[in-house]
Write a structure and sequence with these properties.
The chain has 11 helices and no strands. By secondary structure, it is mainly alpha-helical. The longest helix has 32 residues.
Length: 242
């Protein structure tokens, strides 16, 4: 089992080194973290001095948009690797090895989650919003990181080729609109965004910042939404490669 996992990981690193798009996706989280922490404060400061407006709302918006881009990038990386193995029918091979079908899927979903989790912790640690209690800090990082395997499995479940995957990956960027819905749409209408997992993550952060009494409620709902979607996608993917 360990040898099979190591072989799969080595194959991934080889693919990432030879494919510029995968390489960019692999180092993308680090680039985003650097851009956010160096460019956004300067940009917001310039806008504040130029237009004399309160930029606190836009600080939260930019924080959440960049935050959601982390699992989008790593999720796409995992999804494209699964699509490549799906096209070449390597998944069938892995399914009959000691790794097994479930072991393969678990590996493919765990790696994007772990990369995202580390990236999210670093991103949040050096942000202006890192003063929340440590338990909330960890939980919000975990929930945000669950988006990565969800996106990976979504691409692998609904796309048949990498060309299809490119189209779907563009659609997955719609997940970033959730912060705009919650912060800019009237409260009575914003619940239409509840179908998006990122909507509940945004609500989770919103409660951590300004309404702690609702944090547990949004945490439970967010976990349930992610698990339901992951279960649906896993079943769909399993039927395709059975």
């Amino acid at each position: 089992m360990i040898k099979k996992v190591a072989s799969l990981a080595h194959s991934d690193l080889k693919n990432i080194r030879t494919d510029p798009m995968l390489l960019l996706a692999f180092i993308g989280p680090l680039i985003l973290i650097v851009v956010y922490h160096t460019g956004i404060p300067v940009g917001l400061s310039m806008l504040t001095s130029q237009f004399n407006v309160d930029m606190r709302l836009y600080e939260k918006l930019s924080f959440l948009v960049f935050l959601f881009m982390l699992p989008l990038i790593t999720g796409m990386l995992g999804g494209f690797l699964m699509l490549e193995e799906k096209e070449s029918q390597l998944i069938t091979y892995y399914s009959i090895t000691p790794l097994g079908h479930k072991g393969y899927v678990l590996f493919r979903l765990t790696v994007p989650f772990l990369i995202t989790f580390i990236s999210v912790l670093l991103f949040m640690k050096f942000s202006h919003f890192s003063s929340m209690p440590i338990i909330w800090f960890v939980f919000t990082a975990i929930i945000t990181s669950m988006l990565a395997p969800l996106i990976s499995l979504g691409l692998a479940s609904f796309a048949t080729t990498r060309v299809d995957g490119f189209a779907l990956s563009k659609m997955s960027s719609l997940l970033i609109v959730s912060p705009f819905i919650i912060f800019l749409v009237p409260s009575g209408m914003q619940w239409i965004g509840g179908v998006l997992p990122t909507f509940w993550i945004t609500k989770l952060f919103q409660s951590a910042w300004s309404n702690p009494s609702e944090f547990i409620v949004h945490l439970v709902v967010s976990i349930c939404v992610h698990l339901i979607v992951l279960l649906f996608l896993y079943r769909r993917f399993s039927r395709q490669i059975a």
